[in-house]
């Protein structure tokens, strides 16, 4: 299926990893570009009437009872129980599972679409709970902008025991759906370079009966990381560390030893993050011919990807995974221009803050006050 990629010869947007500020956010006029949309009607979470804060792709925190097992099958990553126009020919006796019939439907969508249109199913997952999430609850945002305190460390945060359980829940769900519905598992895996995602992907897919032609060999993608800002939990470890601790993973070409994007005192704007997400998607859609892709990423970055994909805003709880059926269309001409705002400067405490404020801000030990926090959750 490697041929099933868009023939995109020019990247639709250019995101330089070196250089500072606005200079790194150039968009070039192009001969063609990819336009993304999410296809509604297949998953409950793309329906506006589904409440994201109560949506349960698989009850993440409950104990493993028989009933729990049943509810996992029922929630089914949000796949709606329904018949498709392609069912009649594929499943005349009504014996195939919902996921098998869905896979046939996607296969037919690709078969019957013009050559400039492809459909892919993206499983977008957020990492399980990390130590930085626990610290954010404790200190408030952004007062936890330190590497840690005397009892916990969260620069490039690792998963807590709860976070590992959440990833194991995803693993259990995959196993259940492989066994009960012959679900098509991801054919390519992409993972953020931050440790909590590298760990989450490992636990989520460890030991599953995956097809030999599509083993779990994720590629580490720099641009799949969390929003780049002042929080050290969002700075990554060096390449030597990643290779040593995740030896089965592949590293994308050009990945640098050290983190060149994290700068402590500047934050990526939403528009800059969306340009980064679009650049990542263009890279993957124009080079990867597979149809089922897994992304292990962060809440802010998942939100940015959903926005670029034209999916409704949908906030993922720690450890949650949602599938998104994406239609990608290569169009000629230049894309509609968008305004990309440069990174902004941020005030940071250089020492552990003395106290957090109810507004989300904090008081630094130097005496200066950061009045409000960013309302971002990682
Ligand atoms: C969204 O969900 C509502 C309530 O279940 C349903 O009436 C509606 O048809 C759905 N819309 C789409 C586009 O599936
Ligand atoms: C879903 O809600 C968003 C935001 O309220 C709105 O812009 C969009 O048109 C809605 N989509 C549908 C299919 O109703
Ligand atoms: C979604 O659910 C949350 C939690 O139950 C509730 O507070 C919120 O009002 C709901 N939102 C909508 C739009 O119904
Ligand atoms: C979907 O179908 C399955 C199998 O027929 C059934 O067990 C499950 O309860 C259904 N789920 C919903 C939400 O209707
Ligand atoms: C360090 O921060 C954690 C929050 O992650 C908190 O539970 C712990 O009590 C803090 N330790 C000290 C000594 O303040
Ligand atoms: C599972 O689905 C694949 C197609 O995705 C098919 O080739 C295979 O025969 C199915 N396996 C079983 C046991 O039905
Ligand atoms: C996950 O990590 C463990 C411990 O490093 C390792 O033994 C295992 O092979 C890894 N699994 C995958 C699927 O990467
Ligand atoms: C990489 O980071 C680790 C700590 O995570 C450190 O021990 C090691 O010296 C670093 N390696 C290089 C080449 O900087």
TrEMBL record:
Signal sequence extent: 1-22
SUPFAM superfamilies the record matches: Phosphoglycerate mutase-like
Origin superkingdom: Eukaryota
Coiled-coil residue windows: none
Keyword annotations: Signal
The keyword Signal appears for this protein: yes
Keyword Signal: yes
GO CC entries: cytoplasm
One Pfam family from the record: His_Phos_1
GO-annotated molecular function: phosphatase activity
Protein name: Phosphoglycerate mutase
